[in-house]
Amino acid sequence: MGIPLLHGRAFTEQDDRGHLRGRDLSSFTDGERSMSGLNAIVVDEEFARRHWPNEDAIGKRVRLPWGEKGPTLTVVGVVGRVKLNQLNEQGGFVQAYLPFLQGPSGGMAVLIKTSPAPEALITAARQQVQALDPEQPIYDVRTLAEMRDNSIAPQRLNLTLLAVFAGVALALAVIGLYGVLAYAVAQRQREIGVRMALGAQRRDVLGLLVGHGMRLTGIGVILGLAGALALTRVLKSLLFEIKPFDPVTFLMVTAVLAGVALLACWIPARRAAKVDPVEALRYE
Questions:
Q1: Does residue 266 sit in the same domain as residue 161?
Q2: For the chain, which ranges sit under pLDDT 50?
Q3: For the whole model, what pTM was predicted?
C-alpha cells in the first residue's frame, strides 16, 4: 500500500500462533481463543507520539481493552499515518495493525498491484479465487481510483459549484465594471472633448480613464482580499494539502481579476480616446 515503515520491522511469517503450542485454552471462549494468539502490533506514528512522546516505541507493551483475558502485545514497528475515510481527516483515532497469522479474520480485502489497466485483471482475479475455493464469495471489486473518487465526490461537487458561481460572479463583475466605466465615459463626453480641444493627446485621455477604472478596481481588490481572508476557514474542509491562506493562490487570483478589470477599462477608454473633439462638443 506504500505505507512507509519508520522504525522497527514489519510483520513476518514468524508472527504466527506457534507460541500457543502446549497452552491450555479450554476455558477460553471462541473470541478469546481467537485473540489469544496476538503478541505483536505495528502502530502508526500518531499512536507512538500520543502514548510515548520523546521515547522509542519499539518494544513497548500494549494491552488491548478486550476484557481480563485480552492479550498484551509488543510494538515491533512504527509506520506512517494514513487517511482511512476522507482526505481532509485531521487527528482522530490512533491506528494500529495486527498480524493476520496471529488473528485471522473471516473476511479480508485483497489488493492487486498491476502495471496494465486494473479493470483488465478483474476477471482473471475472480477466476484465481474460484480456483482456490469455488464457494468463496467475491464482492465490492473496485479500483483504488474509484474508491478515491467516491471519497472526494462531495468535495468535488462543492468545488465545482463554487467554481461555477465564481465564474458567474467574475462575468457579472466584468460586465458591471464595463457598464459603469462606459457610462462614466458617456457622462464625461464634453469634458473629454474640451480636454482634446485644448491639446490633450489620446494617450492622456486613455490614461485618465483607465487610471480611474483601475483605482476603483484596486479598492475592490483590497476589500475582496479582506473578505477572502475572513472566509478562508469556511473552505478549510474542502482543501487537501493546501493551507487556507495560500499566498500563490491569492496572488494569482488578484492578477487575474486585475487583468480582467484592465481589459474592461481599456475597451471603453480606447473608444473614448478616438472621439473627435468637434463631435464631442457638438454633441453637448
A1: yes
A2: none
A3: 0.60
